[in-house]
Write a structure and sequence with these properties.
about 325 residues; mainly beta; four-stranded antiparallel sheet; 1 helix; about 0% helix; globular
Length: about 325
């Protein structure tokens, strides 16, 4: 297997007058050529000037893509409008001082849309290096996903008890033989252990949390590759100067291989840039075949982030078998 650049699809995210950057970039196939995208912190400039310095930054936004080929598809972005026209999170904060960053989602046959979220809270510098930490996980059920996102009816679903630092459902989500497999990394541990929780189609937990491998990320993807007849986990490896890696397993509960590095998105980067959030989107189409993967490039320099529109958009690359 190999991963190569696929920059021809990057323009999907860069052409909007108001949505001018975001990370996360989970996608869900809603059927009939409709793809839901879920983003974390996003720049939204309602003036149309595309100025990040004057933009609002909701903690999460969404978009609807029409067409499975990102080179040809159309996309519309959504956030909430608050009092006085203020730009607000699409998924409202669960508690004061907290916010949602998105996770994976899946369309449930005849039973709506299931989305997992990370619950995030601010932390002091001596408590968390980046100034925030995972403080819980949430599952949202949307009963009318065929409607426009502003009209969605959302209900929070109870999850089984687990460590608050475990971001369940953001490390991968797949459906196999009628069961939902939700993966999540425990962000409180340096080795980032990944756990699996199974649910039945009624969203009831089956069995206990199961440790499946170490060295994960809070943001990953898991999918079944029909050509290889095995499960793939796509993830960033490490922090900062990351590579994009691939794990394999014969079954969703493992045994999972080590992450084999296949692509270095930081090869020509300056030291102040870093990448993260690699994940696969097997429902998207790429000319010539293969599986589309996204990652995000960011900067440790705030002035660079605000002025440089070549970063802080999801970027595409392509996973395929070697000739």
């Amino acid at each position: 297997m190999e991963i190569t650049d696929f920059q021809a699809a990057d323009k999907l995210f860069t052409g909007d007058w108001h949505w001018i950057g975001g990370d996360g970039a989970y996608s869900v196939d809603l059927g009939d050529g409709r793809v839901l995208w879920l983003f974390g912190d996003s720049f939204v400039d309602l003036s149309g000037a595309r100025d990040r310095q004057k933009a609002a930054m909701p903690r999460n936004t969404v978009a609807l893509q029409t067409g499975y080929d990102p080179q040809k598809a159309k996309i519309v972005f959504f956030w909430r409008e608050g009092k006085g026209g203020a730009t607000e999170d699409f998924f409202p904060a669960p508690e004061k001082g907290e916010w949602y960053w998105p996770g994976n989602g899946v369309l449930l046959p005849s039973d709506g849309l299931l989305l997992f979220m990370m619950e995030i809270e601010k932390r002091a510098a001596d408590q968390a290096a980046l100034g925030f930490a995972v403080c819980g996980a949430a599952a949202l059920h949307i009963s009318n996903p065929d409607d426009a996102p502003p009209d969605w009816r959302m209900e929070k679903i109870a999850l089984p008890q687990m460590p608050p630092s475990l971001a369940l459902g953001t490390g991968g989500l797949c459906v196999e033989e009628g069961e939902i497999y939700a993966y999540g990394a425990d962000a409180a541990h340096e080795n980032m252990p990944v756990y699996l929780q199974r649910f039945d189609k009624g969203l009831r937990a089956k069995g206990a949390l199961q440790h499946v491998f170490d060295g994960g990320q809070t943001e990953m993807s898991v999918h079944y590759d029909t050509a290889r007849r095995e499960f793939f986990c796509v993830q960033s490896i490490g922090f900062g100067h990351t590579q994009i890696g691939l794990r394999r397993a014969a079954a969703p509960d493992g045994a999972w291989s080590a992450a084999a590095p296949l692509f270095d998105p930081c090869k020509h980067h300056e030291a102040e840039l870093f990448t993260y959030a690699a994940k696969a989107h097997p429902h998207l189409h790429a000319s010539g075949g293969g599986t589309l993967v996204t990652y995000v490039t960011n900067s440790f320099s705030q002035p660079r982030l605000l002025r440089d529109h070549s970063i802080y958009y999801p970027k595409f690359c392509l996973l395929r078998r070697c000739a």
